[in-house]
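So, does this match?
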Amino acid sequence: MKGLVQKTLSLAPGGVRVNEMLQRSVGSFRRFDAEVTGKIEDFRLMARQLRTAGVPIEGARFLEIGSASYPTLPVCLYLVGAERVHTIDRVRRLQLDLLRKLVVRLEREIPSIAEAAGAYAGVCEAKRAHLRASLSTGATLHDASESCIDYRAPADPTATELPQHAVDVVFSNSMLEHFPLVTLDKIFAESWRVLRPGGVVFHSVNCGDHYAYTDPSVGQLHYLQYSERQWRLLWNNDLQYQNRLRAIDFINLARKHDFEIVRDTTKVDPDRLAELRALPRVAREFRGYSPEELCVTTVDFVARKVP
C-alpha cells in the first residue's frame, strides 16, 4: 500500500508536500522521539568510527550528503565543536518546527553526545541552549549555529560549488541507497575534489528493502526477486527511490575513485542467509553476487583520500 501511494504521489503535482503531511499523520514523524534516539545512535557510531580512524571532530570541516527535515547529525557536530558543517539536499526538506523540537529533545542526550566525541558536556549544553534561544527568536540555522551549519537546498551533491580541499570529512547517513549508480559515481568524484589530502568519507548505508519497515510480511531481501523493469514500473518511485545496490558495490565505488578503505563493518547475518534461501527467486540482475554479498543489508565504512 505504501508503495502504491508513493508511486502515485511521485507522479502527481504537489506530491512531495502531500507525502510530508502523511509522514506527520501516519508516518515516521509520529515517532519523533524514537527517530531522534536512532539518529543520536547514528551520530555516536560515526563519532566512534572517526575517532578510531584518527579523525578529530573538533575544529574539522564537514560535508553531509543528503540532509533531512531536521538535520540531527549536523546539529550534533556543531555541539561538539566542528568548525563548519555543509549539509546539502536535492530538495528543500528542512522544517523549522521539527528543528526546534529536535534542539529541545537533545537536552537529555548531551552526555552521550559529548562522550562519543570526547567533548565537554558543559560546553555542548551551552551551545544547545544558545541554539534553542536563537531559533526561538526567528534566527536562521546558519546564524543560530554561529555560522557553523550551512544548509543548502536545493543543491547538487555531484557539483557542490565548494572550493577544492574545502572539507575534512564527507559523510552520509542512510542516503547513498537512494541515488542511482551514475549519480553515486559523480558524488564520489566530487567528494575526492572537495576533500583535503588525507581527508575521509564516512558512509552509513542501509541497503535492505525499505518497505520492510512498514510491512511485516516483507523481509530485508524481498526486493531482490524483482527484475529491474518490474522494480522500476511497480514499486520504485522518486519519493523513496531505492537503487538496490549491495554493500560491496559501495565499497568498490570508493576504491574506484582511489579511496583507501580504512574501516569496513560488513558482516553476514545468518538470518539473512536463511531469508535469501526462502525467496521464491532471485532476479537475474543479482546472480553475479555471492549469497554472502547479497545478504549484507547494512554497512558503515571509512575511506581515506590518499595523496
